[in-house]
Amino acid sequence: MHYYIITGASSGLGIETARLLLRPDQHVVSISRTSPISLVRQAEQTGGLFTHIGQDLSKTDELPGCIDRLMEVIAKSSVQPTSVCLIHNAANAAPFKHLDRHTLDEISASLNLNLLSPVLFSSLWIKRVQPLHVPKKLIFISSGSAEYPMAGMSLYCSAKAGLNMLVRCLHMEQRGLPYGVQVAAVDPGMMDTPMQTAAREAREEQFPSSAFFRQSRDNGLLRTPESVAHLLVQWMSDPASWSEGKRDTIHKL
Question: In this structure, are residues 181 and 174 in contact, taking their beta carbons and an 8 Å threshold?
Fold first, then answer.
């Protein structure tokens, strides 16, 4: 049984990736605040295994308990895992405004979800899956925002840049270990997701770049989450994507 754990699988790229991975020999575990009902129905129809773990990932103090629930799902299965893959997809770029206009609560919530939560979750997950002598993959959904700064998105850009560096460090730490975790980040490019909608609809006096996001949509530059999910699953399944000889761990779809 192949296990795929996806954070933020209730919409956008997360839910579309989960749909493609829901197959009879695979168990998809969604971790998000809301349960993706359509995935529950799909699993019932196709025979794929699906489990939802309700968790607000910005509440970092609850992550150890969330990991416990995740590992219980694997432990209670009558079929031993043949591989495990964790995909960090959950993120939120809003609210869009200059750093000095954020409240302290907004700053904490943004950095907790976009940076601290995936860092802590990854640390806990790596420790718990170490005894499993099966292939393990850890994938972070990155963004062009990790490389290209934009006024009004300082928190999101900084978090994504931090995760890219984390991926590079983890790759070095895990490389060569017996049954070590294969680590990579994937930049999916610009997609028409709820996050893009929020950026387009942001007030221009607070976020002048909202015009850029509207133009990107109007000029047909946004890919659909469905099309990107197909590229992601194809990339994940390609052995060449995980070659030990690869020097970089940040990939663009």
Answer: yes
CA 250, 81, 25, 14 dihedral sign is negative
CB 132 within 8 A of CB 72: no
Q: In the chain, what are the domains?
A: 2-191+229-252 (3.40.50.720)
The answer for residues whose C-beta is within 8 angstroms of residue 123's C-beta and 6 or more apart is none
State pLDDT tens for residues 139-182.
Answer: 999 999 999 999 999 999 999 999 999 999 999 999 989 999 99
Q: What are phi and psi of 179, to 5 degrees?
A: 55, 40
85 three-class SS = strand
Q: Which two tokens stand for residue 33?
A: 């605040």
Q: Are 1 and 27 in contact (CB under 8 A)?
A: yes
Phi, psi of 133 (to 5 degrees): -90, 65
pLDDT, residue 133, reads: 95
> What tokens does 22 get?
């829901």
pLDDT beyond 90 at 240: no
How many Å apart are CA 128 and CA 144, to the nearest integer? 31
> What amino acid occupies position 250?
I
Q: Which of 130, 124, 232, 115 is nearest to 165 (CA)?
A: 115
Task: Copy the structure tokens of residue 97.
Answer: 């405004």
Residue 67's closest CA among 78, 76, 77, 55?
55
The predicted structure's pLDDT at residue 48: 84
Q: Cα separation of 119 and 137, whole Å?
A: 15
CA 229/CA 240 separation, integer angstroms: 18
